[in-house]
Structure formats: C-alpha cells, structure tokens
Amino acid sequence: MNSQLPRWRLPPSHQELLRIVLGGASEGVVVSPEQRAAIRQICSAPERHESEPEEFLIAFKLAIVDAANDVGIPPSPARNEFLARLVTAYIEEFYRAPLADGNGIERLDGQSFSAGGALLAITNSDGAHTSPDAQPSI
Predict the structure, then answer these.
(1) 80 and 45, same structural domain?
(2) What is the pTM of this model?
(3) Which of 12, 44, 55, 61 could form a disulfide with 51 if both were Cys (CB 3.0 to 4.6 A apart)?
C-alpha cells in the first residue's frame, strides 16, 4: 500500500495554456516570447502560493512533458533540450515574479535574472534595495 499523497499538478487551465503555446513549437529553438509570457502567467498565478516552490516546479515539469506529448512533439534529444529551456525560463520567471508583501508593496522574491542574464536589484523585506552586484546573505 502506498501511503504517499498524489503529486500536486498544475490546474487544467495552466495545462491547456502550455498545450496552446507548445502546439506550434519547433524543437531546437529558443523559448519564444509567447511561451515565456505563458510561463510568466503560470508563475504569477495564485496557485504558486498553495505549494512549496519545489512542488510547483515538479508540477510544471510534468505539465510540459504532458503538453509536448499531447501536441505531438516526439521524444528526442532535441525535445529534451527544448523542454530544459522551458524549465530554465520557468525558474527565471518564478523567481523574478513580484510578490506583494503584507502592505501591498511589490518586492522581488530572492535573486532575479533578466532575460539577458543581468542580476536585478534585490529588495529586502524591509524595503531597502541592495546593489545588483551585492552578494545575498545566507
């Protein structure tokens, strides 16, 4: 008997969004602006707060594999590389998405990287900004 709870999955609306944006995808290309926008929408959804970040990432990975299967992207090394690029975009968007603090003020959750790879300013919980090249304290 398996005592583990079933793994949390992305809501059907997010899964459908992924199927739509992967429907016209070509393997081996960069993440398109439409795909990144869909990922950003998923990362900013209220469901992001209902599970641990690791669970949300796992749910995203499961959803993109299902979406790729559903739209007929055949298993191959090129598909794996493309899906890995989508996961990278997901991580960038997840940690870049602004979160509202208790006062309704948006802040960045941890370090964020722009599409060009530049480190964005980090906003501390007290509202102070650190420089982009400052090392976060652990």
Answers:
(1) yes
(2) 0.65
(3) 55
